[in-house]
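Q: What structure does this chain adopt?
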Amino acid sequence: MRILAVDDSPISRDLIPMIFATSGFPPVHVAESGHMALSILSNGDEQFDCLVLDIEMPEMDGIELCARIRRLPRYRDTPIIMLTARDDADTIEAAFAAGANDYIFKRSTAKDLVGRVHVAKRMLHRNDCMVLQNMDRDHGPQARSLRSGRHKFALSDSLLVEGVERLILPFSLGNYLTQLPSEALSDVRLFGVQIEDPIRHYYDNTTPDFVDILERCAGGIRATVNTERLLMAYQGNGAFYCIARNIDPGYPPELEAGINSYLETCENASALAALQSVRVCVGTPITPNARRGQRVRLSFDRVQERMDARTKIGATIQPLQSEQETAGWR
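A:
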């Protein structure tokens, strides 16, 4: 596993390769600045499997570097770990929004750092989340030959649509939640957004059209919650998990109304049949579990439960509304 570490500190540039060498890793390459790192990564001679970035560097900090790396085609989905002394919630959020997959504090042990890189390695080989690139969103002449329901991903697969603001990998969203400091959790809200009847949308649409649905739903969530303190991930089966900080997302019916209104506006402005009748349900927001070791599993389980409960309520209300409308015509 080839690793590039970027840090302006000479001590760190000496220490990091030693840590990995004692754990059996190949020699670690180092760069002393963001500009040097971009020069190395843009050179086609070497391909790195994992990047370890410091945040506090002159001229270009690690967060800006991370965002620039994600714009390099060869490094769109390469694991990026932030290694830093910064432990405030704003910096942690900014790092994950820029495309980081994990975040570790410099006060952590060498064992912790090596362990996180091993996790990144497993993530790289398991490919738990498919990254959908611009070619998957192309509605040009080639898209006309695509068949509805024929996708290279399953309905249950988690997906990352490239270029969608504030949408990150599920793996990264879990790590973000884990790394948030305990004192910040009281201002954090998690909630789920479920696309209604995802099976129908999956089988009735081509890949570009289905990706359009995901992109517009993510846009509707951002527009309705209306905060830069939002990160979300598409978990598969039509479900988005969302984390908002320092804002109350609102009452589920109001959230649903806002997102669905956004989707209706997109539908009216677009010629795409895929956007017709796309609607969502929103689960009641929760505060995350405080115990760091079980925070992700317990919190995400509750998000799913609240979302499922809201979906069942919506499924009950719709037939009643249809009956009332029919009765009105009698």
